[in-house]
Design a protein that fits this description.
four-stranded parallel sheet, 326 residues, 43% helix, single chain, alpha/beta, two-stranded parallel sheet
């Protein structure tokens, strides 16, 4: 906001002049960049921000491990070669805490804190499984299915709810292992990121993310039930607030060796899960999603108060079809 006010209409030209896009891949050593490019970057880069991630909760384990875990380590190793580096900022997730409850403190995750977990062994498990499937000439569809199941199994084995949180947690552990005293490491752990509060304008978001698909499904009339305890606190945080925290924390802790910040709302502005339905009902009643009739004319989609499924028992009853007797 300050920069926008300072430069006004000239800001866009300034951004175009200052920003250079480089194709790369964090799953590769030195990010897959050319030697000539690396030489320049190693001598000029002062700040590295790692936002790269695959956020599919139950995605393929090999892909999530390669990006969220090994990829984070590759970016950090790259940053250590930058002679002018002032700070390395890694954007993680608040849910690296796994299945823990209560107040989660802002402390680094360490290799060895989880009994039996060996990140190098996890990589070997993936490699061996892929080799076995390839030897069987398995189809890509079957391999993808097996990799998704493997990720879920390994995550639950060590106390994480899904592949995404598990691989992000291991990424943090690797960063802690690779950390050098001269490289300030800053980790930001946002909760569920939603559309913006103010900038660039209220409600902006790029693409459809996790909670957005939930909201859109309700607005389109496709989601008629809400599984979960309506009194549970769901921690939401606008995207622009996360960005503001990133900027402020880099300025404040450029000389510290290892800092962790949680970015959430549940302590000061908690939102109950049941409120999401109330907000959605009110919004889509006032501004309904439009569909096209067969003749091409627009028609509003009418949403109704969904069924609350607060226990696994109610969810199972709702999801199980009733079969008529012969």
């Amino acid at each position: 906001m300050v920069v926008k006010e300072k430069y006004g209409e000239k800001l866009e030209c300034l951004i175009l002049d200052k920003i250079s896009l480089l194709p790369g891949d964090i799953t590769f050593h030195n990010l897959g960049l050319k030697d000539s490019t690396l030489e320049e970057l190693f001598g000029e880069v002062e700040i590295v921000i790692n936002l790269a991630a695959t956020t599919d909760f139950d995605g393929r384990y090999d892909i999530a491990l390669g990006i969220n875990t090994i990829g984070a380590a590759n970016v950090f190793n790259f940053s250590k070669k930058c002679s002018k580096l002032r700070v390395f900022l890694h954007v993680s997730t608040a849910y690296v805490c796994g299945e823990k409850e209560g107040v989660i403190v802002e402390t680094p995750l360490k290799v060895g804190d989880t009994p039996g977990l060996d990140i190098e062994m996890e990589r070997k498990v993936v490699e061996d499984k892929l080799k076995h499937l390839q030897a069987l000439n398995a189809s890509q569809k079957y391999i993808s299915s097996i990799m998704k199941d493997l990720g879920s199994l390994r995550a639950r084995k060590y106390g994480w709810p899904n592949t995404y949180c598990f691989t992000k947690a291991m990424g943090e552990m690797l960063l802690g292992e690779l950390k050098a005293e001269k490289v300030p490491l800053l980790i930001i752990r946002p909760t569920i990121i939603t559309s913006t509060f103010k900038q660039p304008f209220p409600g902006w978001i790029e693409g459809v993310r996790h909670v957005d698909s939930f909201i859109i499904g309700y607005g389109k009339g496709k989601m008629t039930c809400f599984p979960g305890n309506p009194q549970t606190i769901i921690d939401l945080i606008p995207a622009d607030i996360v960005v503001n925290v990133m900027i402020a924390s880099m300025a404040a802790h450029a000389t510290d060796t290892h800092m962790v910040y949680h970015v959430g709302s549940s302590m000061w502005n908690p939102v109950e899960y049941g409120r999401l339905q109330e907000y959605g009902l009110r919004f889509f009643t006032e501004q309904p999603w439009m569909k096209r009739r067969r003749d091409g004319t627009p028609a509003p989609i009418v949403v109704r108060r969904g069924t609350q499924l607060c226990t696994k028992k109610y969810t199972k009853i709702h999801a199980t079809p009733l079969l008529a007797s012969p």
